[in-house]
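Before surveying the methods themselves, it helps to consider a single example record, giving the amino acid sequence and backbone structure tokens:
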Amino acid sequence: MRHRDAAICLRTVDYSETSQVVTFFTRERGVVRAIAKGSKRTRSKTGGTLDLTAEGELVYTTGRGEGLGTVVEFSETASHAALRRSAERLNVALYMLEMVSMTLAEEDPHPEVFELLRNSLRRIGEPDAPTQAVLAYFQWRLLSRIGLLGELGACSAFGEPLSETCSREVYFSSRAGGMLCSSCGDEYPEKRPVEPKAIAGLAALAAARAGRRTRLSEADALTVNRLLAYHLTEQIGRRPRMMRYVIDGNS
């Protein structure tokens, strides 16, 4: 069956001297994998080798059973070439792609996540974009959309609200599913302390989602990204490869 859909290139693997196996994130059908035959030739129907972050209109056929589909045509509408002029921005973009690839099953549609990724890639390519703040919003929204965010505004055990001015120790436990106050931490030895900056950053993200104007500093955003990256790793059982460049590299 033939399909036409908006798509973003998440991953490419060389299949032969002239072809690639490409993982796309499509708006209506989710993550799909297909062979782009002859894509490494200049005069191919994809316009040449497909690059990560490339966005466009994909025409493809599905394979039999669990087999790979075949790319019929890919018309690029946005290459996000500006990302390649900054290693920092490119690394953040690649981390976003990796998160989507690791958390979404094939052919599980998430149109709202597609729009989140599309808008985040466009924003991160702008010269004035605060990279850590854009990433914090992306991670927070992605985990929320796929049901992995957990409780971040109150203690997961008691439901007691937490604030950025909280004088007591606050912890986060991925196993508990969110924040823990100092009274609840003993049951979860893997818990990690949460900096006040992270609580402030999460409050800023919640305010932005509610439509209120707010400012998320890069320092607060970085602490939020560390927290959410830990949570993501715990939930999916493995560490994203790009984390070492985007999160660890800013420690």
